[in-house]
Design goal:
Layout lengths: L3 H12 L1 H12 L8 H16 L4 H29 L3 H12 L19 H6 L8 H18 L6 H14 L1 H10 L9 H9 L12 H28 L1
Helix pairs in contact: 2-3, 3-11, 4-5, 4-7, 5-11, 7-8, 8-9, 8-11, 10-11
């Protein structure tokens, strides 16, 4: 399971307890029902999590627009698939956005397809027969993330582990295992920073002139994290309604 939600929330509450006491105390005496402590709490959480993101305002606005126009059609399916395979729906949805911007008909030049942009071998391994079927793709992606989670033996923290899982989703489990094994540390001591540094210096036949395959994987991990934070921020307000 992705533990960043619980860890970050606890740390944030601990570091900002005085702010919440002030905010809650300020609004406890406010007679306007729409200005509740919960709404103010969500506002602060929203602003804090948005500040973690390194996305541009244009990217954030596009994300918000597509969340309303595309994601809303499939939110129930993301929730049910995540519950079925015991993964966080925000993580699942963040991967889907990075992969396809929630477009069920997405395709790439390398012939990965669908909402979760599954390869043919990966689709077959999780029982997906039609990668362009959005429900199959969402459930297949959830199962694949769950499979990666259960087989991941690397990482010194939950944050490292999920970064390795995302890197494996993007680059393949064998490539990530080989990269971790090549780092001059015991495998159980390798951190995401170690793997990130290795990938950024990795040269491979998959590199283009201006963009290495290792850089692409690092960017994938970081951007999924950014979209995950946005979903966490918005989820507070969504659950309040």
């Amino acid at each position: 399971m992705f533990k960043i939600k619980k860890i970050k929330t606890v740390q944030f509450l601990a570091k900002n307890l005085s702010i919440f006491i002030f905010v809650f105390g300020l609004y406890a005496c406010n007679k306007e029902p729409e200005n509740t402590p919960l709404s103010e709490y969500c506002k602060v959480i929203n602003e804090k999590l948005y500040s973690f993101s390194r996305l541009s305002d244009f990217e954030k606005n596009k994300f918000d627009k597509l969340k309303k126009s595309r994601f809303s059609k499939y939110k129930k399916d993301f929730l049910e698939a995540a519950e079925t395979f015991n993964v966080e729906w925000e993580l699942l949805a963040a991967v889907a956005f990075q992969e396809s911007q929630w477009d069920p008909k997405a395709r790439s030049a390398t012939q990965v397809k669908g909402m979760m942009m599954l390869t043919l071998p990966t689709a077959a391994s999780v029982g997906v027969t039609n990668r362009l079927d959005p429900i199959q793709s969402i459930y297949g992606g959830a199962q694949y993330i769950a499979d990666l989670t259960s087989s991941m033996n690397y990482g010194t923290s939950s944050g490292d582990k999920i970064a390795f899982i995302l890197a494996s989703y993007n680059l393949g489990t064998t490539n990530i295992k080989n990269a971790i094994d090549a780092i001059d540390k015991n495998s159980n001591e390798v951190t995401w920073l170690d793997l990130e540094g290795y990938l950024l210096n990795l040269k491979s036949s998959m590199d283009s002139k201006d963009y290495s395959r290792g850089q692409q994987t690092v960017d994938f991990v970081e951007r999924v994290r950014d979209y995950y934070y946005l979903l966490l921020a918005q989820n507070c307000s969504d659950e309040e309604i």
